[in-house]
Amino acid sequence: MQRFFRRHPALREFVLFNLLSNCSTLVNFLMTYLGTHVLFRGLRTVPFSFLVFRYQNVTEDLGLAGFLSFLLATALAQTVNFFVQRQLVFHSSAAAGQAALRFALLAVLLVLLSAVLPAYTLPRFGIMASAVLNIVMQVAISFPAMKFWIMPRRSQETVDR
Question: Can you tell me where the transmembrane regions are (predicted)?
Fold first, then answer.
């Protein structure tokens, strides 16, 4: 298997990218739980709405506690994802500050897309297909963005300038 991945380094990066993304998924689950059950527990009955974020059915979405937990969990998960992808997958030599800013922009774009997309895909495809489409869309955008724009290696950086 090592020989195969040495001959196909881009495929190795893609597989590693997807496997190590699970680190941020675990952080996301943990922080969502802690946020809704510990940190923001007292806000679970407060409805919240801002732009595309609608947490108004407090028995199902936990209102303001649900939103704040989502925000905290996403921020921490993406912070973990940034370091894991930068160090372990892409071995990037890009300036950390510039990469972090670009990564933050990507994360905001992906959060907004994943918040909006279900409104269009759920009625047509159902919950499972909608979730799969959301994941595929996020990978299709995030992997090339990270590889070529956010976390390039030195040889790719000179081409980018």
Answer: 20-42, 62-83, 103-121, 127-146
Mean pLDDT of 82-106: 94
Whether residue 146 contacts residue 17, with contact meaning beta carbons closer than 8 Å, is answered with yes
Residues 6+ positions from 39 with CB-CB distance below 8 Å = 68, 69, 72
Distant-in-sequence, close-in-space partners of 87: CB < 8 Å, separation ≥ 6? none
Among 82, 96, 72, CA closest to 17:
82
Task: Give the pLDDT of residue 155.
Answer: 55
List, for residues 114-140, the tens digit of each pLDDT value. 888 877 887 888 888 888 898 899 999
The pLDDT-based confidence of 51 (bands split at 50, 70, 90) is confident
DSSP assignment of 110-145: HHHHHHHHHHHHHHHHHHHHHHHHHHHHHHHHHHHI
Q: How far is it, in rounded angstroms, from Cα 161 to Cα 156?
A: 9
